[in-house]
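Suppose a colleague, Dr. K., hands you the sequence of a protein chain of 484 amino acids and asks what its three-dimensional shape might be. Before reaching for any lab equipment, you can write down a predicted structure in token form. Begin with the sequence itself:
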Amino acid sequence: MTPQLQQAIRLLQLSTLDLQQEIQEALESNPMLERQEDGDDFDTSDPMAEGDQQSNSGNQDSSFQESSVQTNAEALEDGEWHERIPSELPVDTAWEDVYQTSASSLPSNDDDEWDFTSRTSVGESLQSHLLWQLNLAPMSDTDRLIGVTLIDCINNDGYLEETLAEIVEAFDPELGIELDEVEVVLHRIQQFEPAGIGARDLRECLILQLRQLPSGTPWLVEAQRLAADFLDLLGSRDYSQLMRRMKVKEDELRQIIELIQCLNPRPGSQIEASEPEYVVPDVIVRKHNERWLVELNQEAVPRLRVNPHYAGFVRRADSSADNTFMRNQLQEARWFIKSLQSRNETLMKVATQIVEHQRGFLEYGEEAMKPLVLHDIAEAVGMHESTISRVTTQKYMHTPRGIYELKYFFSSHVSTSEGGECSSTAIRAIIKKLVAAENPKKPLSDSKIAGLLEAQGIQVARRTVAKYRESLGIAPSSERKRLM
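The predicted structure, expressed as tokens, is then:
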């Protein structure tokens, strides 16, 4: 592959956020590149050849044409350099072997101005959150040592993984730390936030959270008794046995269980150690005059052009080191702009075909989703399936129904009794709808759901229903049983 093709493929598979970072690095490393600000004059010249006009695509929205990256070729013609830049480099050569890449412009580790924390910072971990509370609590040095050890033994869910006896054995015998001292410090930690932290099992976790509720909470005493003595019956959903043991009526038991269900069985999950991931849509789909329009998100990627002032400094016959450097920077800038334009055009073609194929989803929702595979889009746009796979990975579409990754619109199919096809996404939506409308006392089994789907003409095996149900995060019927 030529270096141009390598760069185009690399930019094609980048997400919008990664592409923004790549563009920023290119702007910082290449003086020939600059942002196209609003209101600046620019023409529509092909960035790879002076004087050639860009080809317009008649089936693309006008907003896409306006968001395409641009360059100012007139400034190049007015300058001293009129040499035509070759459009290709030798095959199987690397881009880094010919031109300086933006990655090489990154500062080294010994650069004092490089902000390491801005590139490596993450959210607060559960251990650091607990240690912060431990440092605020007044205690002796020995108790603080015990507390630090206990916190190290708490997993991400908030549970103490080691037994107290094992923790005592881990200390130096010369310290003379005994089991009751460790237990006292553990009780201190169990009063930290989030509620339920440091528990040794689910029963203790629920009891710790119930103890921190206001004393006037309805059914608090009964909920504490249920968590302490009858948690196994609740797990097996043996409601009749629970009502007999606790001597409560069905409506009272329902309120007690609702209080239990308000608790968090994984209290440590409230402290998120990883940074949040942001999604920026690449394309926007909207309906106008009964037509679905596809537009590039103009705010996601800045428009670029070649700086005409610096480009005018390049001299045709000058072979000095400075002129060679500037000529290489100009070539790299123009190829970078061309790669961005190619990325935008490919993304628009694929997104337009997806919208054309999935109009039913945009109009009526998931149940109207049609089967779609990569080969269908590749055949429609005249590209290889691998290219379609790159385009649809980490690229997002903003629709009136929400923001979806382009891969979301692809799904396999299941045959119907009438000889048609139904997508797996539509079947999942139907299963979700059936479960939401079921009787909580008598939830639908997988076999029953398969029968209901067959009644609608959709032929799905019970094991397929189970697979789709699990992918939706829906528990089996035995675990969905609830009191009214």
